[in-house]
């Protein structure tokens, strides 16, 4: 431990990371630099700065990363229509490579010997932070206190805090009993009664979205404009990537869109139950598939669907900075060259219906070909006979063999 003189700590200002800050001083006798990321979690972050300063930290970073998060991580992920195990929109997973990137940048800039995080040894986040850090700084030293210390219960943490005069925010009333993670894309809930997968979560748990049954009785229409697969405007008003996500969060939340309750397979091997609210992301996914339906070639669309689960798994398991994810991203981004146009969505009581889609100049949909009326020679139906017979050849030959 004596070779560690300065550590960059991913610091939230909460109980765990405040204890880690003190523990690093005590165990490693090193200087600690704190880094707090504003990823759109909706909390005031200046208290984290003040708390770090009160604990003797002289180098404190509180960075607004909302636009970078949306532009360079959320938007590229949604170009792939990414969803993990059929339901999870990867709200926590996609934030971790950005945090790892910034930890490494601060370590390089401050001359730190190591980085530290507060992820536990049971979860996915330890893997995501560390794989990202190693990919960006191969010789980085990583300290993960939950894998080193014996403070393995809430009671021990509280005792340590008391003995070391670490201030504890004892909240009541609206304090959540769940382990939560929030950012611009989503909010997640774990723990407490959710550890029983048979128990339905209490309605009071949900923080962002209204109960779909209590959502407005009138649907809301929203029009999304796309350029190269990214949303650039909502209802005719230009938006930055972060503004897009925030605006769609508000729209989706008031209509009860984006709640899921799943049991997922963690990378470390266990199954875990989590509840998520991703209102804006749910709208983004539906809209993107709708614009691709008229602008993307069939074989290319199917190829994207084939590689998407692999791409989603790479994000979930922490391989955002891997060569294979970067290569897949290049293919995905190339596929979006002609994904331009508009989608009109109808949002009503937890549901999202596609009400229209159009693309001037880039649509592959031709009403003259597909019509049930006179197609004026745009399609010769007689051609279908040879097409069918050629595709049936192997089936007919197999049938003859099986009949012997």
Describe this structure in words.
- The chain is of the alpha/beta class.
- The protein is 40% helix and 19% strand.
- It has helices at residues 15-28, 46-54, 66-79, 96-110, 125-136, 154-163, 241-254, 279-295, 298-316, 323-335, 367-370, 383-402, and strands at residues 6-10, 31-38, 60-64, 114-116, 141-143, 179-182, 187-190, 220-227, 230-234, 237-238, 259-265, 271-277, 341-348, 351-358.
- Strands 3-2-1-4-5 form a five-stranded parallel β-sheet, sandwiched between helices.
- β11 and β12 (271-277) form a beta hairpin.
- The longest helix is centred in the last third of the chain and has 20 residues, at 383-402.
Main features:
404 residues, alpha/beta, Rossmann fold, Argininosuccinate synthetase, chain A, domain 2, 3 domains, 5-stranded antiparallel beta sheet, 12 helices, 19% strand, elongated
Number of structural domains: 3
CATH C-level category of the largest domain: Alpha Beta
Mean pLDDT: 93
What class would the helix/strand composition place it in? alpha/beta
Q: Spans of 5+ residues with little confidence (pLDDT < 50)? A: none
Q: Which strand-content bin applies to the residues?
A: 15-25%
Helix content: 25-40%
State the distance separating the first and last CA atoms: 76 Å
Q: Tell me about the biggest sheet?
A: 5 strands, parallel
**What's the shape?**
elongated
What's the name of the CATH homologous superfamily of the largest domain?
Argininosuccinate synthetase, chain A, domain 2
Strand order of the largest sheet: 3-2-1-4-5
Radius of gyration: 25 Å
What is CATH's topology name of the largest domain?
A: Argininosuccinate synthetase, chain A, domain 2
């Amino acid at each position: 431990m004596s070779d560690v003189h300065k550590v960059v700590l991913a610091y939230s200002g909460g109980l765990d990371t405040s204890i880690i800050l003190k523990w690093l001083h005590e165990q490693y006798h090193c200087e600690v630099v704190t880094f707090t990321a504003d990823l759109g979690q909706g909390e005031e972050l200046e208290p984290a700065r003040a708390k770090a300063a009160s604990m003797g930290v002289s180098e404190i970073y509180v960075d607004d990363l909302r636009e970078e998060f949306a532009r360079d991580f959320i938007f590229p992920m949604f170009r792939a229509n990414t969803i993990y195990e059929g339901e999870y929109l990867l709200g926590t997973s996609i934030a971790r490579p950005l945090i790892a990137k910034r930890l490494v940048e601060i370590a390089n800039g401050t001359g730190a010997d190591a980085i530290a995080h507060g992820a536990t040894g049971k979860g996915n986040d330890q893997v995501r932070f560390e794989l990202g850090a190693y990919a960006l700084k191969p010789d980085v030293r990583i300290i993960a206190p939950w894998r080193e210390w014996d403070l393995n219960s809430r009671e021990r943490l509280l005792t340590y805090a008391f003995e070391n005069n670490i201030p504890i925010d004892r909240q009541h009333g609206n304090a959540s009993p769940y382990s939560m993670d929030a950012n611009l894309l989503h909010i997640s809930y774990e723990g407490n009664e959710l550890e029983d997968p048979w128990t339905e979560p209490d309605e009071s748990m949900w923080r962002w979205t209204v109960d779909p049954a209590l959502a407005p009785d009138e649907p809301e229409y929203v029009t999304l404009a796309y350029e190269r697969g990214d949303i650039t405007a909502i209802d005719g008003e230009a938006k930055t990537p972060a503004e897009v996500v925030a605006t769609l969060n508000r729209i989706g939340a008031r209509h009860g869109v984006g709640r899921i309750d799943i049991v997922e397979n963690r990378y470390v091997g266990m199954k875990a139950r989590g509840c998520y609210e991703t209102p804006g992301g749910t709208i983004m996914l539906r809209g993107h598939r709708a614009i691709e339906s008229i602008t993307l070639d069939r074989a290319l669309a199917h190829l994207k669907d084939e590689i998407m689960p692999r791409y989603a798994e790479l994000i979930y398991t922490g391989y955002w900075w891997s060569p294979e994810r970067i290569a897949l991203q290049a293919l995905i981004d190339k596929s979006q060259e002609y994904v331009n146009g508009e989608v009109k969505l109808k949002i009503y009581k937890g549901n999202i219906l596609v009400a229209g889609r159009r693309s001037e100049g880039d649509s592959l949909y031709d009403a003259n070909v597909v019509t049930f009326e006179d197609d004026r020679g745009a399609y010769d139906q007689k051609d279908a006979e040879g097409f069918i017979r050629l595709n049936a050849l192997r089936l007919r030959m197999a049938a003859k063999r099986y009949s012997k």
